[in-house]
Specification:
Blueprint: H1 7-22, H2 26-32, E1 37-46, E2 52-63, E3 69-76, H3 81-98, E4 104-110, H4 118-132, E5 141-145, H5 151-165, H6 189-205, E6 213-217, H7 221-232, E7 237-243, E8 246-249, H8 256-266, E9 276-278, H9 280-284, E10 290-293, E11 312-314, H10 323-331, E12 335-337, H11 339-342, H12 345-359, H13 365-393, H14 399-418
Parallel strand pairs: 3-4, 3-5, 6-7, 6-10, 10-11, 11-12
Antiparallel strand pairs: 1-2, 2-4, 7-8, 8-9
Helix pairs in contact: 1-3, 1-14, 3-14, 4-5, 6-7, 6-12, 6-13, 12-13, 13-14
Length: about 425
């Protein structure tokens, strides 16, 4: 992989930029450039043909100065340790920016769930938890779902962990089914949080959301609910959507219910009738008001940043914009709201789930959404205020740089108070 696309190098570069801007203490900077703990495990699973297969997995605790580690688990064929390290760093900044009492962590297993039976996936999920059980816990490190992991998988994982420790421990993992200590509103919380950011960003840009043209890359948990909320609650028009096979485009707007049906029946949104097909690359360059990358990292790079036509980029995926592209978008005055603000709704409601599990007292969906709205809107306002502070003192900084300065400062202060440097 080219160095400029290595997600961990990117996360370090972003930290370095913030460190320079805020004149971060050298010792704190050194600690924050590397994860605190990296665990690599190999998990044997009995496959349907009776043979055993070995799966490699990771769990990285990036920093726990502000609280237990927090971060999802990905099941992905191209998973790498560097990706998990980068994601764990971003989780650290995300929890800090939201000002919730968690550090950052992330996990992953190299596997292709599309080629596995439910029994094989369950066996792998349980085996992975056995392998990392000493390194997780409600007060140690709390996993959650991410790409290609589901509430059902979280349910199996909680069950396996409790079998090992010998008592109930609902707070060990979040994103569980509601029947098993999950929170109301968790399932669409990432997209809901993103839409609160969109509302605030639109106000800032004086953009009318009603009828605004939105293009979304990815039709998974994040992208699908973003589509639903953007159209049903905000009155926007989703003109393009894609999944890993490719996408569809209709300038008049796509129909959410019809698209869902097509995805369910045929496996891909590409089979939606009455719209033209568009590749994942071309989708990014479509004429629209808001572009929402909601799939994977490194989608907007120095190669295509010049051709982005959207007035606003809302990073619902983790790491979809490279640092080189960041600069280009900023120079072109395209408002790019950073991933660790936009998709923080997932971890904020995960935090609510953890609180509810620890207290054994559960909230309504309305309660969850209104608390989420307050936290994410506060973070948005913190970022805008930090940009203004720097404007007064020197060069205008990007929303991502402002978010980094806020998040890194809070973690550095917690480490200082603990006497780590
Ligand atoms: P998901 O597995 O539910 O969906 C992923 C989607 O991306 C699918 O539609 C898939 O077809 C598509 N996709 C996969 N490879 C692609 C490619 N090469 N090009 C285009 N599309 C591709 O995952 P998700 O939970 O929706 O996560 C998507 C992004 O959002 C990830 O970056 C994830 O880290 C981030 N995120 C998700 C949550 C959450 O709560 N789900 C929270 C924070 C961040």
């Amino acid at each position: 992989m080219a160095e400029e696309l290595d997600p961990f190098k990117i996360s370090q570069k972003q930290l370095d930029t913030a460190a320079e801007l805020m004149k971060l203490d050298k010792a704190a900077h050194q600690i924050l450039r590397e994860p605190q703990r990296t665990v690599v495990v190999n998990v044997p699973v009995k496959m349907r043909d009776g043979r055993s297969r070995l799966f490699t997995g990771f769990r990285v605790l990036y920093n726990d100065a502000r609280g237990p580690g927090k971060g999802g688990i990905r099941f992905h064929p191209q998973e790498t340790l560097d990706t998990v390290k980068a994601l764990s760093a971003w989780m650290t900044w995300k929890c800090s920016l939201a000002n919730i009492p968690f550090g950052g962590a992330k996990g992953g297993v190299i596997c292709d769930t599309k080629k596995m039976t439910p029994a094989e996936i369950e066996s792998l999920s349980r085996g992975y938890i056995r392998a990392i059980s000493k390194f997780i816990g409600p007060k140690i490190d709390v996993p959650a779902p991410d790409v290609y992991t589901t509430p059902q998988i979280m349910g199996w994982m909680r069950d396996e962990y409790e079998t090992i420790v010998g008592h109930e421990s609902p707070g060990v993992i979040t994103g569980k089914p509601v029947e098993l200590g999950g929170s109301e509103g968790r399932f669409d919380s990432t997209a809901m949080g993103g839409m609160y950011v969109l509302r605030e960003a639109a106000k800032l840009q004086k953009m009318k959301l009603k009828g605004a043209k939105v293009a979304i890359q990815g039709f998974g948990n994040a992208g699908k609910f973003a589509f639903e909320i953007a159209t049903k609650l905000a009155g926007a028009k989703v003109v393009a959507i894609s999944d890993s096979q490719g996408g569809v485009y209709d300038p008049k707007g796509l129909d959410y219910e019809k698209l869902n049906e097509v995805k369910e029946k045929t496996g891909s949104v590409q089979n939606y009738k009455g719209a033209s097909r568009v590749s994942n690359d071309d989708l990014l360059e479509l004429d629209c008001d808001v572009l929402i990358p909601a799939a994977i990292e490194n989608q907007i790079t120095k190669e295509n940043a010049d051709r982005i036509k959207a007035g606003m980029v809302l990073e619902l995926a983790n790491g979809p914009v490279t640092p080189e592209a960041d600069k280009i978008l900023f120079e072109r005055k395209i408002l790019d709201m950073p991933d660790f603000l936009v998709n923080s709704g997932g971890v904020i409601v995960s935090y609510f789930e953890w609180v509810q599990d620890m207290e054994g007292f559960y909230w309504t969906e309305d309660d969850v959404y209104s608390k989420l709205d307050k936290i994410i809107t506060r973070s948005f306002n913190d970022i805008i205020a930090m940009q203004q502070t720097y404007r007064k003192g020197g060069r205008m900084i990007t929303p991502r740089e402002a978010a980094y300065v806020i998040a890194v400062d809070r973690v550095a202060k917690a480490m200082k108070a603990r006497g780590w440097y």
